[in-house]
Structures are given as C-alpha cells and as structure tokens.
Amino acid sequence: xxxxxVCGLTRAEDVELAVNLGADFxxxxxxxxxxxxxxxxxxxxxxxxxxxxxxxxxxxxxxxxQVDRLLEVVDRVxxxxxxxxxxxxxxxxxxxxxxxxRAVEDLNSLEAYAQTVGAFLLDSFKEGVAGGTxxxxxxxxxxxxxxxxxxxxxGGLNSxxxxxxxxxxxxxxxxxxxxxxxxxxxxxxxxxxxxxxxVRE
Length: 201
Prior knowledge:
- By secondary structure, the protein is of the alpha/beta class.
- α1 (about 10-20) packs parallel to α6 (about 190-200).
- The longest helix has 12 residues, at about 190-200.
- The protein contains six helices and ten strands, in the order βαβαβαβαβββαβββα.
- The protein is globular and about 40 Å long.
- The chain has a single domain (about 5-200), classed as Aldolase class I (TIM Barrel, Alpha-Beta Barrel), CATH 3.20.20.70.
C-alpha cells in the first residue's frame, strides 16, 4: 500500500481526521500560500500528532535559520523552491526535495540531490506557483524510470485518479492537498474518507 502524505493542513479537525484515517505524513505550508500557517499555529497543530505519523514543514527558498527553527517543531522539511544540493545537505534524510515537472528532462535534475536528501517529491509545474496547483503532469514520464531515493507523487491527485497513480511501482507514496479540499486549506471530510478508502482497495 502506498504511503500517504496529506498536505496543506491548517485546521486541528483535519489533522485529527487524517491521523485517524491512517495518514503516514502530515504536511504544513510555511510559505506564501492560501494554505499557509505560522510557526505558532504549527506548534499547536502538531502537538497531538502521534510519533508514528511524521510531520513535514513545506518551505520555499527559506533561510537556514528558518529551516533550523522549523525542524524544532516538525520531523521533516520539504524544500519546494530553488534550494541547492549544498543547502539541502545540511538536513540530510530529514529533507524532502520537491521538483516541479514540466518536461521529461526535468527528471534529470533529481540525481544531483541523491546524496543530500532523504526523499524526492514530484509535483506539476505551473508558472508562478510553487505548489498546490491541483494539476497533474504526464505520468508517462515516469515509465522506465527508477529513483535513488523514496519518491512521492503530487499534483492533482484525488480519489478518481489515485488508482492510476498507485500503479507506478517505483513510487513510495502519494501527496494530496487540493484534491481533498472544499476551500484552500479546508479539507472535506467525505473526500478524505473516499481517498483513503481507494487506497485500502
């Protein structure tokens, strides 16, 4: 069964439901976004999360001091900007590097980070938007590809296309955000339950 990361969480009730449904990772955005939270909010949101569920702070071109502070609160940090391999190396396996895939050639940039982060995340590209686009990229790009780090698929996932996504055997898991929302940062309980039901199938 693929591992599931529910991202863009902003409300305690959504965090609780994601945990109860069996999420493996919970993602919180700490960058300009309709789903953004402040560190003080984040501390309250993650406080009741059991140790068996990993928490992830999502940043875009953050300063080292910000990332260091964030890792006092969460288990992992997801780099969703133009962070270099050298920048990410400070955080090792606690780092997840996101890549916005516009063309198949974009996958060639992953290996530069193979020794500096613990996992990769593949997201769709939309000009001027770092993530949470609600759009997929052509998953055919991933055929015949293997990855040197656990790799998650993001971008436009929902209960309708999840079955197709999990048939990509080289993927460790999936990352879902807008596909479970009724408004940015506000999850829909029914959509969340449907999504997890499909995973269990």
